[in-house]
Amino acid sequence: MSHPPRNRIRKPGGDYALISVAVVVTALWVLAGLFPPVWMALSAFKSSYEGTLFPPSFLPRMPQRVSVALAYDGGAVPSDAEGLLSLVRDDAFTAQWTLFDANPRNPMGEVQVSAYVDGREVYQSSLLLFSYYYGRNRIWSATILDRTQILKHKSDIQDGDTIRLYEKGLRRWPVGAGPQMPPPVISANKTAADSRDTLAGMGMAGTVHSLTTSNAPLRLFDGFIRGWQNVRPEVGPLRWGRYFINSAAITAGGILTQWLFTAFAAYGLSRVLRRRASGILTMFFLATMMIPAIATVIPLFLQMQRWGTINTFWSIILPAIPSGFLVYLFKGFFDALPGELFEAARMDGATDFWIFLRLVIPLSTAVFSVVTLMCFLGGWNGGGGLMWSSLVLPKEEMHPFPLALYYMDKTVPGYGALGQAQNQEMAMTLVASVPTLILFLFFQDRVAKGLVWSGLKQ
């Protein structure tokens, strides 16, 4: 027995075309939005040299550690400890400087030199790439591959802060008390071969006993280390911990004041005032959003100056309250709450203040989460923008984190046109974005609910 064909609902061909276009547009939008943060994150792990490449590389290259063992004959070196230490340090400095200077295109992140006298180690130190660049920019841009010239500029390169960076991983032993010298090994790659040939003609007192290369994944974080320890010889280092605390204080103060003033204002407009008065005042708050921010800079600055809040966090917090948009956001959510709850509370003798604290706030966690995230983004990003922050917080110890980032490229030694501080800037920018990312992941469900319910009406 045959059955008649069922009537099937078929999608017209235009629907498939619309879906395809929507998918493609969404994918392109997502890729365009993700590219800047992904590029920032990857650039933070690049070396200083990779920031100067054109065309730029997308992925950071794995840095290498070049380990050099120099052997000395005990009868041909100074017998006193200070003389021996000076000799091996000069050879180590020569080898480290020469290998970095002769291999600018190799992904070298560290050069480690060990000195052995009569088969026993007496000295070991490392030079990191960012320390080399710092010292390099203190002299000139010409290539220096002569031992005499290198040692001539040694004092200029190693003065003050740089000597600490240069002797990273420093270890010393009395003659005859250090570890045994390993068997001679030369890595079978071009970097090792070129490095050995380069060192052969440098006139060092020691001979190259072994030269090996290995991956140094920890050197991927040099941008973070150097960025956090950023050195400015004229005015001292950037104090990122202080800037972090400043941003946290501005953000916390902004969130609390917005909660207090904006939520109370919205509750009054939604549940206390008559409809006509509420409508007029709501339009007044919305009208404040139409005024360009640049038009209020001078009046606000004069007002902050008159109140004596310049160089205090209040000059950032006070101009932001109350926010017309946040008042409208709160009001939309409060309007959507069931009116029967308010009527029942008033019949029981509850005051408006009690209703707000014990009824409205517990029911409004979603919209409070939205406001918290929005205030956090505004406060953490400097509050009012970089121009306003630089006007009202001229003292460096009061700078928020983003303002310190803005000044970073103007104070990093050797930044110039080569972009050698790009990885440091990206690293500090990535550090600044971590709190925002954590907060958004924590509040994302509540933010979605708050945005949806704020648009509902009774």
How is this structure best summarized?
By secondary structure, the chain is α+β, with helices and mostly antiparallel strands.
Biggest sheet, open or closed, and with what strands and sense? 5 strands, mixed
Helix amount: 55-70%
How many individual β-strands? 5
* Radius of gyration, CA atoms, in whole angstroms: 32 Å
Shape: elongated
Task: Walk me through this protein's architecture.
With 458 residues, the protein is an alpha+beta fold. The chain has three domains: 13-44; 64-220; 240-453, MetI-like (MetI-like fold). Helix content is 56%, strand content 9%. It contains 19 helices and five strands. Strands 4-3-2-1-5 form a five-stranded mixed beta sheet. Helix 2 (81-102) links the parallel strand 1 and strand 2 (108-117). Helix 8 crosses helix 19. The protein is elongated. The protein starts with 12 loop residues before the first helix and ends in a 5-residue tail after the last helix. Mean pLDDT is 80; it is low at 412-419.
